[in-house]
Hints:
Strand content: 25-35%
Helix content: 25-40%
Oligomer: single chain
Amino acid sequence: MPGRTLGACLMVCVAITATIAAHHGTSINYDQSKRWTAKVIVTEFRYVNPHAQLFFDRRKDDGTLEHFSGELLPNPAMLTRNGWTRKRTAEAMQPGTVVTVTVAPARAGGDTVLVLRIENDKGEELLGAAPL
């Protein structure tokens, strides 16, 4: 019987560790040494777990649009504690809103980024998700 209990405990510990490790790899997936800042057009903001998501377009020099999806480090509970509520999101991040973002691109490339900072058109910080 003690062997079964120990085995069950080990299986639970492995499952929990795997789940935590799988989720908390956010920062390692992005290259913060290649940050960029640009004015962008919000297309959507999702206030979801485990991390809020910002979708936006960046206009290239030739006039074409690049589409990006961004992950924010703070989870919704952290955002709420810091005053970034669903209502505030709906007001400040409506589709078509122009904001300035600082992001770190994904190490794997593509159109996924980690959103580090969001400023409105007046230069006021809306969200500082990570130290710059």
